[in-house]
Amino acid sequence: MSGPILFDLPVTHFFQSFQPAWLTLFMQGISVIGDTMAYFLLVPVVALFLYLRRRRFESLTLVLAMTGNVIQWGLKLLVARPRPSAELVKVLQDGNHTLSFPSGHTLAAIIFYGLLAYFAVTLPRFPHKKLVIWTCVIMTILMGISRIYLGAHWLSDVLAGYVLGGIWLVGVIALYNKYKEQYK
Questions:
Q1: Separation CA 129–CA 139 (nearest Å)
Q2: Per-residue pLDDT averaged across 94-123, rounded?
Q3: What is the Cα–Cα distance from 103 to 85, expressed in whole angstroms?
Q4: Count of other CB atoms within 10 angstroms of residue 169
Q5: How far is Cα 64 from Cα 53, in angstroms, rounded to an integer?
Q6: Which of 31, 38, 14 is nearest to 103 (CA)?
Q7: CA distance 77 to 36
Q8: DSSP class per residue in 16-82
Q9: What is the percent of the chain with per-residue pLDDT over 90, rounded to a whole number?
């Protein structure tokens, strides 16, 4: 897979058909939040918050869950798909020094925000449940849209990130549920 497939180009053109400066800046901000370096700050802060609220196993689970990001690096090397080019789409965020498939931003987003949403739904006395759940859902969706809008990924890259991250998330949740009683 070296270039866009069936629906990649029309979907990218659709998302890029309306690009006012404020929206571009907003999408760049969303993308920065989903960068690997941002998770090096975000994950420890949230893990510490959980730890201080006596949710030690949840804190550890969150940190271990993010190791799923390694999946994308291996697949990027295996598939070796280039990023969208300026000849085909508007490239508003340069990512051409790395490979495209799958989108690491969306893979990490579904793992991180998905697990936080799961904790918010299932844990008693989780502060601001509805706000956390909706923020997680919106951030996960916006992460994928931002990658297409900015011309950094094709829709197929983004969908692959969601699917692979979702599979990892389901596995993490299954392991969490299996062992959580042992660590109370």
A1: 15
A2: 89
A3: 16
A4: 22
A5: 18
A6: 31
A7: 17
A8: TS---HHHHHHHHHHHHHTSHHHHHHHHHHHHHHHHHTT-HHHHHHHHHHGGGGHHHHHHHHHH-PP
A9: 64
CA 95 to CA 30: how far, in whole Å?
15
Q: How far apart are the first and last CA of the chain?
A: 47
Sign of CA dihedral 88, 93, 96, 102: negative
Q: Parse the chain into domains and list their residue ranges.
A: 20-176
Any idea how long the chain is? 184
Residue at token pair 């907003």? 26
* Cis previous bond, 102, omega within 30: yes
Q: 3-class DSSP state for residue 7?
A: coil
Question: Would the pLDDT of 147 be above 70?
Answer: yes
Half-sphere exposure of 108 (CA within 13 A, CB side): 24
Tens-digit pLDDT profile for residues 56-106: 999 999 999 999 888 888 888 888 888 888 888 888 876 557 888 999 999
Express each pLDDT in 27-42 by its tens digit. 999 999 988 888 889 9
